Amino acid sequence: xxxxxxxxxxxxxxxxxxxxxxxxxxxxxxxxxxxxxxxxxxxxxxxxxxxxx
Length: 53
Prior knowledge:
Shape: rod-shaped
Number of strands: 2
Radius of gyration: 21 Å
Low-confidence stretches: none
Structural class: mainly alpha
Distance between the termini: 72 Å
Strand order of the largest sheet: 1-2
Largest sheet: 2 strands, antiparallel
């Protein structure tokens, strides 16, 4: 008989003592995507300024 834990979020099978990191990973990806969006927005703003000159 196997003993394992289950992730409450996604249902992934975890080893005994292993903690699910899906929430941390989701937060990390969200932060990374937000930074990328901010960078792209800044680039577009700078291109707009240069085109106006």
